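Incident review: delayed structure delivery

Summary: a single-chain prediction request sat in the queue longer than the usual turnaround. Root cause was a stuck worker, restarted by the on-call engineer. No data loss occurred. The affected request and its eventual output are reproduced below so the record is complete for anyone auditing the incident later.

Affected input:
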Amino acid sequence: MFKYRDLKKSHDIRNITQIITPRGILDPFEVPKKKILIVGNGFDIRAGIQSSFEDFILYIVYGCALFNYKKKQEIKISDEEIKNFFSEKDCPFQLKAHEISTDEILDKCNIFASSMMGELVLGNLFPNFYQYIYFQPPEPVYFYNGDDYDESINEEKMLIRYIYGLEQGGSFIDNPEYNFLFLPKELRNKGIKSFEYLIHSELKSLQHKCKLKLWLDIESIIELIVTQTPDLKEKYGTSYQIPKDQASTDSLLLGLNSFEILLATYLRFAEEHLEKESSSSSFFKKITDDYSDSLSKRSNFLIQRVDISDATTIINYNYTNVAEKIFKQKNPNIDIRYINGSLHVKDEVRLDEIDTNIVVGYSNLEEIKVTKEQYPFEKKSRRILKNTEFIDIDSVINKELFDLTIIGHSCGIADSDILKPLLSSDYLKSAVILCHTVEDLFSIFNNLKKMLDKEQFNLLFSHPANKLNKNLFFSVEKKGGCTNN
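Output delivered after worker restart:
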């Protein structure tokens, strides 16, 4: 995985401290045979799958739009017009994913959007759209025409029809309050084209303000709902107290279950439409080329290059089998663990009583007291409920010296049950985190600082010249290619 500088021939490192572990003294110059790789969503994105946080949220938004095109009286259009949405050459991928969606899937998009979790997620990303589309419209607005109230004019209905591209415009367009609804003339009254333009315009206008951008934010939103943590309240902008009675818990779980089912459905479509790499060797070579130079410099030339293709164990935080397909081209017997479930559960362990094996949740590291009804929101509990693959880190390490590489993962605190024991292990020689950008590096660094004890954190980043184990280094990608989870 790492090509180390030949330290035995080096004259600038003397008096190397012995590495003492529970199994005895290890050779400080030993290159580990065990190579553990953690992959997150950025790995899948790099491989060509459209599975970013934004991709999936847009899938839900388009699902809500189609639900309303079919169900809402003031928006309802014909099946033929809906079919025309998908026939366009430039139909968005996330909308195209709904071409085979059943009414049940569209219902689940609406259920999620109407849930407390949906309100926090979509209300952060699309505050204007959430107000005018996902909430129930207010009472009709009637206008006095001089003699009587004109009940035929409902500004709210006209506004919603305009957002959905079914109305040319109305008096409300001149109101500064609706500036966000500006549409170029050629895009007015164009159905999904109008809707798509307005959705992307709002996403773009809020991209530097919105604090909800990554998959780890979903875990934080769930934690906020359950624990009401003050700093999360401040970050995601909710001031109301979320009730903790059974009915509220059932409602929240309905939203979370809908989210997981929708995510599994979308990822299956995205996986089927994966832009395939020419070969696994070219995929691995690109990663080596993009990261080795930065890693060499940041490790003060201790590590000369990185090559993830020879990983012996993969802990896969993704739900797809993209990593499995790529690595098994090189090593058919590689050990791959799906920590949060998989889209491709073996029939012999598939559970009939659950809709999907994949897990979304949070980790209650601060042990904030919650009611027993709220236990199912925790990631560990959801893994048990979903019967995901159990990972015993001690058995993975197996008292062997190992190198650790992390790619495409944000190292969020919700995953500390795996990351913390690996990074604090006596058998860790070196760890490397491959980052898409310097901004990702800062974010991951801060996440690790929150996750690890002060002593563990300082040890990983002290890099003493006379001690060659427990070193953690970063590498920043030379060119664009993946984003972290």
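Verification: Residues 53-272 form one domain.
Action items: add queue-age alerting; document worker restart procedure.
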